[in-house]
Design brief:
By secondary structure, the protein is mainly α. The chain has 5 helices and no strands. Helix 2 packs parallel to helix 5 and helix 3 crosses helix 4. The longest helix has 24 residues.
C-alpha cells in the first residue's frame, strides 16, 4: 500500500509558492492574469491572432507568444497597451499584505 498523499495549501500566488521573491512574484502574477484576460477578450471579439495583432499594433508572432502564455516576453506595461488597443481598460487594486 502506498502512503497517503500530503496536501499543502498554497497562497493566492503560485509564483510566490514556487519561491520567487515577493516583488517578482507579484509582477509575474499580474502579467499572467492580464494575459489570460487578453486571450479571453480576443475570443469574445471573435478575432484571429492576426486580426488581434493588427488591432493591438504588434506582430502576429508576438501575439502568438501572448496567446501561448509566454508572458516572460512582455512587460506589464506592454500588456496594458495591448488590452487598451483591443478596447479594454485595465484597472488595478492594491491592498496591504498581512
Amino acid at each position: 500500500m502506498s502512503a497517503p498523499l500530503k496536501t499543502i495549501v498554497g497562497s493566492d500566488n503560485v509564483f510566490d509558492d514556487l519561491g520567487f521573491p515577493a516583488p517578482e512574484a507579484q509582477n509575474l502574477l499580474l502579467r499572467a492574469d492580464l494575459a489570460i484576460h487578453i486571450r479571453k477578450a480576443i475570443d469574445r471579439l471573435g478575432l484571429t491572432q492576426a486580426q488581434a495583432a493588427a488591432r493591438a499594433g504588434i506582430t502576429q508572432p508576438r501575439m502568438n507568444d501572448l496567446v501561448k502564455g509566454r508572458t516572460h516576453k512582455f512587460t506589464l506595461d506592454a500588456l496594458v497597451n495591448v488590452a487598451a488597443q483591443l478596447g479594454y481598460t485595465v484597472k488595478l487594486t492594491m491592498k496591504k499584505t498581512a
